[in-house]
């Protein structure tokens, strides 16, 4: 085998001339033909910058300042712009993170797929189009002959990502660079895309560099792993040994943080029986209301939920499932169309103006994006003092003492009080965010994807903090996340939402073992595991769905119908499903009973939570 | 084209009509209701109360403002714009004689300025940060801020007074040869173009750069697409909306600029007619001219919006 | 004047315009210096004037440069330097007052409409939309024709013309900020509308609002001098820079300084303001982008 790709002492600088900062500090690695190498690291590790350097490209404000990037017979750093143009999209190709943004919205997909090879003179339009359709078919895109005639906005995210892979592969490149290609996707979509990628890469013997922050995804795709941090290589090894026995401390912390539920468990005995928040028959949505007061776009349908004092309830679901809307309704930011809320025995108004100051105090919200959750013009002290003044009338020394206590509580040094949010790191911001909610001494904290925007290690630390705070203060959480493992690390009960419906709810333990709702099953089995070969053996979403007849014109029909592997023709598409309670106490919205579900789902219990099953 | 797009277009057209109605109310309110008694004003201080009352009855001023407004609006819609007091002529006739001149001026300006601005804007977007771009950027920034009477006076000084190439005064009559046409129109068109080209070029540059910074352009670059093709085939189709908007807004600026330019060059267009009407407080004429200008402005903006809707594939085929 | 920025629908483009320009920073300093000089002239000009503004001090009209009259004399033989020094106070003063008022009311309405219920927001936006469809010069012309020209009327006209533009810019920013999570947190904390508007939203849009104020000042200078140039602005015996151009237009074919100086004065003022704004917003853009 020969080394196809050789990167030696690559250096990239950023910033204005004169005040340049090195962001990639002498990185070297090599790759043989047919291998897949993964660059893994957290935000700011320089992984994308290195990936782009493989195409001889640096983003605006960056400059490739030194080293060698040898791709086949070409040194990408020694070529001029015209020569590079000839190689890009021809010998080296690129798959971007967000396909939705990386396709030109004004051009049809097929035109964009064949544009590169047409420019490079790799064939006639007809040949290339035929080849593209073949690739679409290989990548398991639905309706491969016709999908290319659509515009990007007419195709779903997972499909676009596969079209982009076809665009990268159509020129039979020496090297494909995949930059976080599944990060923007839901887990249930990610698994299909990963499978498609892996198959084409293997079948065509393509050499690839795969950039990701997710070790579990990388474990499925890569032969070699390079661990990056701060623009430097910390560890470089074949995949299996790296996963088994990581040499570097940082790699170990990455591995530990990857699946928080294997390390963190919710505290026991905090939850009491008394209900704190009760949601009954909640329907809500956006847009103009019709004659019956129903919004044009209904996001939540008939949700019932009870949060007990001291309890943590996790709400999971993919994007568009309505989980964040649920939090907004409870917070009073969105007025429900139907149904009611009760808080500690008192009715809770649907809009902000109907709530009492005491209710405002007792329900606090923590948002996903710490960057936008803190007012950049206010200092940390100002941010924390506002609820203290407002709810408790604290002033002077008492106020300062309490601010200090709050910072201690979230494990931030007290001298942070004078800083502005833009002087804090992402994790620190999220802690301030949390401290602000705690300042009100709330009974219920609504956490909307609080760890999603953070790097895994930082996110795991925040989870731990949340767990300890709950133990210490007895506060309840409504914890919203798309990631089942973070929910399992923190919550007693879990609610699964799918397109506005509560399809499954149960104790945390009941999510360790079948039977589940078919969607829960899909969700659980789509989360990549930290072992090689998982992708090939996992049971989720495979094969053809059973054929089904025309659906009845009933709005109450099961919303998961189109993707359900267990649907029954004549039943699921004709009548609305019922709520049923399974033996393990969980409640599902499905036509299938426990025995049916068990029969299909048995034997595919994932290993990672055998530990506490 | 589908029903959704059609609905969008209809809604936009509807909104335009409503806006024009509100504008007509504002114009009528300012010119006919707020200033007080037009009969007293036109007869002067020494008129007897009987004379004033008689004139008021004749002008229909004894009716409430709303009725007068509706009456005025109906007349406007049927093309009856009243009588110009200072010229003793029907307003419609007066305007009909002037509108073609102004249209001619506007058309000549648009014909020169739009292509020039697009070339400058796209060119400097392509060479962003380079010397040409910095230069153009400074020049356009300065030009945008220059009053047109400064441009006009300097141009007259240079071309008419010092060089003697062109006449300082324009007469739109008796144009027989292209040379004469050029001599007549060169200065006013040049003056108008200066500011408009600068504005349009800046907005075009911003719109194109906005697209050039988007991920799909980076993707195209990484596909090996050449810079020129990136701008022409990738960025421009997506910038049509904002560019159309820029053109419409700049051309609608023409409507304001033309007021000054027609006055300076003594050009017999609709704007100089309006300035005279304002000086003579010839209300019927002022109202009609204002409505014409506002309608033209709205039409331009509307056209740009339609361009933006139609050029957006998300809206074209859903 | 520049309605495309004042009236451009996506308000951010006005700021984008300035943000992306690649002008060097010394131009910004030049702009700042020009602005400061004009401000000083507006404040102290009348005291610096060597001659009384209305006094005919020379027998020669349209005189050129001389030590006694550095800017020459006008069509009646009055000292141009004195007239420019006094006229600048009108131009700068009126425009500044009008720009401040327009920005104040525009931003105020924007904040009001963002924290108000939807129907009120809708009504305010509709009215502003209608006013924005009347080109500022047209509004000025009909106002003058209806009420006659006076300083108060000119200020009112400029304010009314530029409130909608300022409203649009401010509202689009306020809407974006209002959607941010820290504002949502404040709302769910039970904060009043006034607090949300003034403490959470306003501080974060202050910079762009000030930039917009500067731009608007430039347009108002152009509008008012344009009106004066038409003889419909500041009325004699007072004269602003625009009126000076108008009253000396007879000297155009002699290339008299009396007409060039005031026209150039307006040009330097507006260019200076634009350069300064361009510099300030490009610096902010870099800071935001670099973070």
TrEMBL record, chain A:
- ABC transporter domain residues are 5-255, 277-524
Q: What one GO molecular function would you report for this record?
A: ATP binding
Sorted alphabetically, the keyword list is:
ATP-binding, Nucleotide-binding, Transport
- Coiled-coil blocks: none
Which SUPFAM superfamilies does the UniProt record give?
Answer: P-loop containing nucleoside triphosphate hydrolases
InterPro entries xref list: AAA+_ATPase, ABC_transp_ATP-bind, ABC_transporter-like_ATP-bd, ABC_transporter-like_CS, Oligopep_ABC_C, P-loop_NTPase
Q: Name one GO biological process term.
A: peptide transport
Question: Which SMART domains does the UniProt entry name for this protein?
Answer: AAA
PANTHER family recorded = D,D-DIPEPTIDE TRANSPORT ATP-BINDING PROTEIN DDPF-RELATED (PTHR43776:SF7), TRANSPORT ATP-BINDING PROTEIN (PTHR43776)
Q: What is this protein called?
A: ABC transporter
Q: Which organism is it from?
A: Pseudomonas graminis
Automatic annotation (TrEMBL), chain B:
* Principal subcellular localisation of the protein: membrane
**InterPro entries (alphabetical):** BPD_transp_1_N, MetI-like, MetI-like_sf
**GO terms for CC?**
plasma membrane
Instruction: Give the record's keywords alphabetically.
Output: Cell membrane, Membrane, Transmembrane, Transmembrane helix, Transport
Q: Which GO terms describe its biological process?
A: transmembrane transport
TM spans (from-to)? 12-34, 103-123, 135-161, 181-201, 243-265, 285-310
Which Pfam families does the record match to this protein? BPD_transp_1 (PF00528), BPD_transp_1_N (PF19300)
The record describes its membrane topology as: Multi-pass membrane protein
Give all residue intervals belonging to the ABC transmembrane type-1 domain: 99-304
- Compartment(s): Cell membrane
Q: Which domain of life is it from?
A: Bacteria
Q: Which PANTHER family match?
A: DIPEPTIDE TRANSPORT SYSTEM PERMEASE PROTEIN DPPB-RELATED (PTHR43163), PEPTIDE ABC TRANSPORTER PERMEASE PROTEIN (PTHR43163:SF3)
Which family, according to the similarity comment?
Belongs to the binding-protein-dependent transport system permease family.
Q: What is this protein called?
A: ABC transporter permease
Q: What is the lineage of its organism?
A: Bacteria, Pseudomonadati, Pseudomonadota, Gammaproteobacteria, Pseudomonadales
TrEMBL record, chain C:
Annotated membrane topology is: Multi-pass membrane protein
An individual GO BP term: transmembrane transport
Domain ABC transmembrane type-1 spans what residues? 88-277
Transmembrane regions = 26-49, 90-115, 138-163, 213-235, 255-277
Member of which family?
Belongs to the binding-protein-dependent transport system permease family.
Name the chain's protein: DNA-directed RNA polymerase subunit alpha
Q: Which organism is it from?
A: Pseudomonas graminis
What Gene3D superfamilies does its record include?
Answer: MetI-like
Keywords from the UniProt entry: Cell membrane, DNA-directed RNA polymerase, Membrane, Transcription, Transmembrane, Transmembrane helix, Transport
């Amino acid at each position: 085998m020969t080394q196809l790709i050789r990167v030696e002492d690559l250096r990239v600088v950023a910033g204005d001339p004169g005040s340049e900062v090195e962001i990639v500090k002498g990185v070297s690695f090599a790759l043989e033909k047919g291998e897949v190498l993964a660059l893994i690291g957290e935000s700011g590790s320089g992984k994308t910058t290195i990936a782009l350097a493989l195409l001889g490209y640096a983003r605006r404000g960056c400059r490739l300042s030194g080293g060698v990037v040898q791709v086949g017979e070409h040194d990408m750093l020694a070529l001029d712009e015209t020569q590079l143009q000839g190689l890009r999209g021809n010998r080296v190709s690129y798959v971007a993170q967000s396909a939705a943004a990386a396709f030109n919205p004004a051009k049809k997909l097929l035109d964009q797929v064949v544009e590169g090879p047409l420019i490079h003179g790799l064939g006639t339009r007809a040949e290339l189009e035929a080849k593209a359709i073949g690739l679409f078919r290989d990548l398991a895109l639905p309706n491969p002959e016709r999908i290319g005639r659509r515009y990007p906005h007419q195709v779903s995210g997972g499909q676009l990502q596969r079209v982009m892979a076809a665009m990268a592969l159509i020129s039979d490149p020496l090297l494909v660079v995949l930059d976080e290609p599944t990060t923007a996707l839901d887990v249930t979509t990610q698994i299909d895309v990963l499978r498609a990628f892996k198959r084409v890469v293997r079948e065509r013997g393509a050499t690839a560099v795969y950039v990701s922050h997710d070790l579990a995804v990388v474990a499925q795709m890569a032969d070699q792993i390079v661990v990056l941090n701060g623009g430097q290589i910390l560890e470089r090894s074949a995949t299996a040994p790296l996963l088994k026995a990581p040499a570097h401390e940082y790699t170990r912390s990455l591995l530990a943080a990857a699946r928080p539920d294997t390390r963190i468990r919710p505290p026991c005995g905090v939850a009491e029986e008394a209900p704190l928040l009760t949601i009954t028959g909640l329907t809500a949505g956006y847009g103009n209301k019709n004659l019956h007061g129903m919004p044009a776009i209904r996001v939540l349908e008939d949700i019932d939920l009870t949060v007990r004092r001291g309890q943590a309830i996790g709400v999971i679901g993919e994007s568009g499932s309505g989980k964040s809307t649920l939090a907004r309704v409870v917070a009073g930011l969105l007025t429900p169309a139907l149904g009611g809320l009760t808080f500690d025995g008192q009715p809770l108004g649907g809009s902000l103006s109907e709530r009492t100051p005491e209710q405002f105090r007792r329900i606090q919200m923590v948002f996903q994006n710490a960057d936008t959750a803190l007012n950049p013009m206010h200092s940390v002290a100002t941010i924390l003092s506002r609820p203290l003044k407002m709810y408790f009338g604290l002033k002077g020394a008492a106020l300062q003492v309490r601010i200090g206590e709050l910072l201690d509580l979230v494990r931030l040094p007290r001298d942070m009080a004078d800083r502005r949010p833009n002087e804090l790191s992402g994790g620190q911001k999220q802690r301030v965010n949390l401290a602000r909610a705690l300042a009100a001494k709330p009974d219920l904290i609504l956490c909307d994807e609080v760890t999603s925007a953070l790097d895994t290690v930082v996110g795991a630390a925040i989870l731990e903090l949340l767990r300890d705070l709950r133990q210490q203060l007895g506060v309840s959480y409504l914890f919203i996340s798309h990631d089942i493992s973070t929910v399992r690390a923190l919550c007693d009960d879990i609610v699964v939402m799918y397109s506005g419906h509560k399809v499954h709810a149960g104790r945390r333990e009941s999510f360790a073992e079948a039977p589940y709702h078919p969607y829960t099953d899909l969700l659980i089995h789509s989360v990549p595991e930290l072992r090689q070969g998982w992708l090939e053996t996992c049971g989720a979403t495979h094969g053809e769905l059973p054929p089904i007849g025309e659906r009845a014109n009933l709005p109450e029909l099961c919303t998961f119908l189109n993707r359900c592997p267990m649907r029954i023709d004549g039943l699921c598409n004709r009548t609305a499903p019922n709520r049923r309670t399974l033996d393990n106490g969980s409640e599902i919205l499905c036509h299938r009973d426990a025995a049916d579900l068990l029969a299909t789902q048995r034997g595919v219990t994932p290993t990672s939570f055998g530990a506490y099953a | 084209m589908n029903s959704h797009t059609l609905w969008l277009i209809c809604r936009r057209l509807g909104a335009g009509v409503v806006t024009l109605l509100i504008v007509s109310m504002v114009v009528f309110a300012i010119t006919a209701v707020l200033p007080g008694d037009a009969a007293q004003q036109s007869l002067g201080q020494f008129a007897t109360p009987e004379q004033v009352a008689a004139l008021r009855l004749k002008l229909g001023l004894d009716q409430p403002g709303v009725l007068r407004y509706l009456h005025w609006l109906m007349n406007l819609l049927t093309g009856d714009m009243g009588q110009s007091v200072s010229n003793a002529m029907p307003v419609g006739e007066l305007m009909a004689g002037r509108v073609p001149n102004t249209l001619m001026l506007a058309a000549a300006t648009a014909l020169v300025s739009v292509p020039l601005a697009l070339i400058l804007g796209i060119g400097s977007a392509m060479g962003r940060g380079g010397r040409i771009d910095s230069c153009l950027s400074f020049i356009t920034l300065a030009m945008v801020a220059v009053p047109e009477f400064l441009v006009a006076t300097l141009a007259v000084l240079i071309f008419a007074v010092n060089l003697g190439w062109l006449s300082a005064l324009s007469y739109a009559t008796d144009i027989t040869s292209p040379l004469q046409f050029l001599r007549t129109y060169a200065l006013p068109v040049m003056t108008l173009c200066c500011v408009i080209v600068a504005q349009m070029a800046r907005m075009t540059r911003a719109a194109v750069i906005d697209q050039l910074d988007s991920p799909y352009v980076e993707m195209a670059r990484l596909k090996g697409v050449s810079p020129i093709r990136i701008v022409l085939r990738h960025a421009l189709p997506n910038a049509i909306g904002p560019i159309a908007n820029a053109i419409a807004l700049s051309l609608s600026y023409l409507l304001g600029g033309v007021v000054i330019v027609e006055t300076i060059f003594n050009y017999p267009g609709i704007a100089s007619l309006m300035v005279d009407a304002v000086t003579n407080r010839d209300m019927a004429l002022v109202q009609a001219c204002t409505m014409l200008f506002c309608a033209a402005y709205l039409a331009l903006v509307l056209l740009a919006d339609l361009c933006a809707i139609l050029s957006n594939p998300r809206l074209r085929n859903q | 004047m520049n309605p495309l920025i004042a009236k451009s629908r996506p308000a951010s483009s006005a700021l984008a315009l300035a943000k992306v320009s690649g002008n060097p920073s010394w131009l910004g300093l030049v702009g700042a210096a020009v602005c400061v000089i004009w401000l000083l002239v507006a404040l102290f000009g009348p005291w610096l004037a060597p001659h009384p503004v209305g006094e005919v001090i020379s027998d020669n009209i349209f005189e050129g440069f001389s030590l006694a009259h550095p800017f020459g004399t006008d069509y009646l033989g009055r000292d141009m330097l004195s007239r420019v020094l006094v006229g600048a106070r009108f131009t700068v003063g009126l425009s500044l007052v009008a720009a401040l008022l327009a920005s104040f009311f525009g931003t105020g309405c924007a904040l009001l409409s963002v924290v108000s219920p939807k129907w009120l927001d809708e009504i305010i936006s509709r009215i502003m939309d209608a006013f924005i469809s009347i080109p500022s010069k047209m509004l000025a012309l009909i106002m003058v024709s209806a009420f006659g020209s006076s300083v108060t009327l000119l200020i009112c006209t400029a304010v009314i013309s530029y409130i909608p533009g300022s409203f649009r810019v401010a509202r689009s920013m306020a809407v974006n900020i209002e959607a941010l999570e820290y504002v949502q947190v404040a709302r769910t904390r039970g904060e009043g509308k006034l607090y949300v508007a003034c403490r959470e939203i306003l501080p974060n849009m202050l910079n762009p609002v000030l930039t917009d104020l500067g731009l608007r000042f430039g347009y108002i200078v152009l509008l008012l001098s344009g009106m004066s140039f038409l003889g419909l602005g500041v009325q004699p015996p007072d004269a602003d820079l625009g009126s000076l151009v108008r009253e000396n237009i007879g000297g155009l074919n002699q290339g008299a300084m009396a007409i060039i100086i005031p026209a150039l004065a307006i040009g330097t003022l507006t260019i200076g303001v634009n350069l300064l704004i361009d510099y300030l917003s490009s610096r902010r853009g870099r800071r935001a982008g670099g973070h």
